[in-house]
């Protein structure tokens, strides 16, 4: 079987541009600098993984891109893309069915009531959950709840065919960190498939170095607090990839060594 490949995203345009972004919490001598002078360009359709030690500002950076918080200095430009954020926890409404959770997201987006049920069914099909429409979150496994959360995030983005590919930005904050290895591996396949089919631009935060190499077109390494971009690693491997392949393991080991150097240098 030949390996499928994905054409490298064009670097002549940007879906996201961070220029000199800094973020401090508090003020005066008590201020805590979380991010310091971060500059990063993400191309339309690119899958970029952000990696770094705990507390380096990865989640803070996603919140800034999602406009859930404001920068202290610098600028962020998403070029009019529709942005959705997928959190570490599914955060589904427990009193709503699976379809109800998706329809609520669609209602927030302004989708007419007559269209919501059909759209919700399409989204569930895209994450292979057809048949679970009437289930409530407590009736689902952890992996299935994360699939619903992914479908909900997609509900808040441009549907396939509605806009130019690469104009939908999906932010993912360690979405698979709490799952077992097999479920996580299956969801890696799912998010890669959906990313390709919908032409998404993805910023993906993780602590798992192999996960970053498995999924990313590029791995961006942040320093310990305050977070700064210290190195970028292009992932020039054909897709699909296996998280346990020698090629993934080799690059992951190199990145891990660099991460250890950085953490040790900062005494974290």
UniProtKB/TrEMBL annotation:
InterPro entries: AAA+_ATPase (IPR003593), ABC_transporter-like_ATP-bd (IPR003439), ABC_transporter-like_CS (IPR017871), ABC_transporter_ATP-bind (IPR050166), P-loop_NTPase (IPR027417). Pfam families: ABC_tran. One of its GO terms (molecular function) is ATP binding. Gene3D superfamilies: P-loop containing nucleotide triphosphate hydrolases. Residues 16-251 form the ABC transporter domain. CDD domains: ABC_NrtD_SsuB_transporters. PANTHER family: ALIPHATIC SULFONATES IMPORT ATP-BINDING PROTEIN SSUB (PTHR42788:SF13), TAURINE IMPORT ATP-BINDING PROTEIN-RELATED (PTHR42788). This is ABC transporter ATP-binding protein.
């Amino acid at each position: 079987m030949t390996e499928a490949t994905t054409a490298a995203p064009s670097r002549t345009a940007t879906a996201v541009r961070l220029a000199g972004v800094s973020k401090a919490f508090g003020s005066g001598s008590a201020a805590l600098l979380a991010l310091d002078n971060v500059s990063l360009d993400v191309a339309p359709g690119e899958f970029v993984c952000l990696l770094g030690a705990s507390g380096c500002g990865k989640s803070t950076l996603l919140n800034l891109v999602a406009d859930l918080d404001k920068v202290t200095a610098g600028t962020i430009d998403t070029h009019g893309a529709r942005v959705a954020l997928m959190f570490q926890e599914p955060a589904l409404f427990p009193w709503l069915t699976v379809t109800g959770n998706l329809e609520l997201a669609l209602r927030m987006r302004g989708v007419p009531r007559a269209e919501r049920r059909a759209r919700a069914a399409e989204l569930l099909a895209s994450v292979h959950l057809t048949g679970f429409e009437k289930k409530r979150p407590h009736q689902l496994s952890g992996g299935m709840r994360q699939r619903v959360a992914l479908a909900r995030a997609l509900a808040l983005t441009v549907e396939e065919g509605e806009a130019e590919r690469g104009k939908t930005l999906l932010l993912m904050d360690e979405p698979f960190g709490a799952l077992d290895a097999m479920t996580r591996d299956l969801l890696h396949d799912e998010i890669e498939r959906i990313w390709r089919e919908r032409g998404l631009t993805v910023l993906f935060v993780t602590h798992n170095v192999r996960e970053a190499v498995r999924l990313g077109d590029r791995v961006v390494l942040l320093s310990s607090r305050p977070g700064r971009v210290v190195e970028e690693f292009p992932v020039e491997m054909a897709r699909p990839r296996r998280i346990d392949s020698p090629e993934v393991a080799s690059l992951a080991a190199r990145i891990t060594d660099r991460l250890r150097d950085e953490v040790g240098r900062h005494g974290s």
